[in-house]
Each structure stands twice: as structure tokens, then as C-alpha cells.
Design brief:
Blueprint lengths: L8 E7 L4 H12 L5 E9 L7 H9 L5 H19 L2 E8 L5 E2 L6 E2 L4 H4 L5 H21 E10 L6 H10 L6 E5 L16 E6 L2 H11 L3 H8 L2 H11 L4 E6 L5
Helix pairs in contact: 1-7, 3-7, 8-9
């Protein structure tokens, strides 16, 4: 966790994982002239040195020996992206979905043991964790927000468990000025989303888009699982952002 000063932030972005906000909102962060920006990552740790077979395979596929090495690498990547885009950050260190489990006497109950479950329904055990996350976010806002603060949460496009959880929690903060960002790269494959929400476009300069792409490439450990390689990332990025904007969604005010 980065040690922050007690200053207030005009823009606070809530990220499921280390990289999601930069992937989805890097253009807006680059564009914002007032750089009082805080990125808060919720799931940025693991539950201990006990992994499911699925988690072990995932770590091995990325050439990491263990979860500690994996998260240390990801946090170094975040620091580099933060320098590129000029934002402060904080990690709440809840375990990622793939590493969450409940200890039992005979065997451990892993919440999500295969990829399809990571993009399925939120487990009962995770429902119990959500109040703790809400309370942490409330404390973050009490410490770092002001009357002008805008809050950003994921839309949950792609249905990843951690994105779903944070989207649902974000809906609880309607008294604040909140927006929901399109989860890139999942949003590049899904066309219909937004439900009862309205959207607004944030148009970006060529410089903003280049800066965003540069910041995304700072997360080297994620290039392979998300895009296969840098060339594919660039192709997807250029195609999706060809019209030069990011889109943000909000709940329309009742009349």
C-alpha cells in the first residue's frame, strides 16, 4: 500500500484488480487537468500459500513460482503506470477471486476452481465479504473525498466475479456523484450494456490515447492472459478507440 498524504481527491477510481482502472479509464486520467486522482484497488492480494489446482496452473502459465512473487510484480507494474499517468494509489489487499478459500478441517473450500466459475455467479462466501469491502470504501471516502469528488466503479462487463462485486457495491453510493466505466478489454467484445443507465462520452486527444496505451503496457504480466501479446493489444486498442473516446455510465436523476 502506498502511504498517502491526507489530501483530498477530486477523482477516486475503484479498481477490482491492479490494472483495471488504467485499462478502462487511462484516457480520462490522462486528460484530467487537476491531478488530484486516487486509484483504489480492492483485490490485490492472496489468502495464503494454499492454492487450488486452477490457481497453480494460472501462476505457472505466467512463469511465477508463487502468489507472493506474482503480486509483488503486479504492484511494481502499478507504480510504473502511476508515474506515466500521474495518479496516487492504494491497495486494500482483499484476495483475488482465484485465491479465495475457506479453511475446513479435512479440505479447503476454494470459491472458484475453474475459469467458467470466475465468470459465473458470486459465491455465498463472497456475499459475506462484501460488507467488509463496503466499510473499507466508506473509510476511504471519509478520509480522501471532498464535496466535489467524482467516484468511478466498473460496469462489470465480462462478468468477472470481482468486477461484479465491485459494481454491485458501487450502486450503494448513489448519494455521491458516481460513474461506471466500461471494463476494457471485455467491452470490446460486448455491445449491449448499461441497463437502466445513461452514458456520456469523454473525447480524448491523440496524446491521451498514446499515454493510456503506454500505461497499459506497463502491466507486462497481464499482456499474455488478456491480449496474447503487445501487437494484439495495439490492434484491439486502435480498433476499439478509433472514434477517440471513452464512455462512462451513470444513473439518471429522478424528476
Amino acid at each position: 500500500m502506498k502511504k498517502l498524504s491526507q489530501k483530498k481527491y477530486n477523482s477516486i477510481f475503484f479498481s477490482p484488480h491492479i490494472d483495471d482502472v488504467v485499462l478502462s479509464c487511462g484516457g480520462l486520467i490522462s486528460k484530467l487537468e487537476e491531478k488530484e486522482i486516487l486509484v483504489v484497488t480492492i483485490f490485490s492480494d492472496y489468502s495464503g500459500e494454499i492454492y487450488s489446482r486452477h490457481a497453480k496452473c494460472y501462476l505457472n502459465s505466467l512463469k511465477f513460482d508463487n502468489a507472493n512473487e506474482y503480486f509483488n510484480s503486479r504492484k511494481k507494474e502499478e507504480k510504473l503506470a502511476a508515474k506515466i499517468l500521474d495518479f496516487d494509489f492504494e491497495w486494500l489487499d482483499f484476495p483475488e477471486a482465484i485465491f479465495r478459500f475457506k479453511k475446513k478441517l479435512i479440505f479447503n473450500n476454494f470459491f472458484y476452481t475453474k475459469t467458467s466459475k470466475l465468470f459465473g455467479s458470486v459465491s455465498r462466501e463472497d456475499k459475506k465479504i462484501m460488507p467488509f469491502i463496503r466499510n473499507k470504501i466508506k473509510r476511504i471516502l471519509k478520509t480522501y473525498s471532498n464535496t466535489r469528488s467524482k467516484l468511478y466503479f466498473p460496469l462489470g462487463i465480462g462478468n468477472h466475479i470481482d468486477h461484479q462485486i465491485l459494481n454491485e457495491i458501487g450502486m450503494d453510493f448513489q448519494k455521491n456523484e458516481i460513474f461506471f466505466y466500461e471494463d476494457f478489454p471485455y467491452c470490446s467484445e460486448v455491445k449491449n450494456f448499461g441497463r437502466h443507465l445513461k452514458s456520456k462520452k469523454v473525447f480524448l486527444s491523440e496524446k491521451d490515447l498514446k499515454t493510456k496505451l503506454k500505461a497499459i503496457t506497463a502491466y507486462k504480466s497481464q499482456l499474455k492472459p488478456l491480449f496474447k501479446d503487445t501487437k494484439t493489444l495495439r490492434n484491439i486498442f486502435v480498433k476499439f478507440y478509433k472514434n477517440g473516446f471513452e464512455r462512462y455510465w451513470y444513473v439518471p436523476k429522478k424528476r
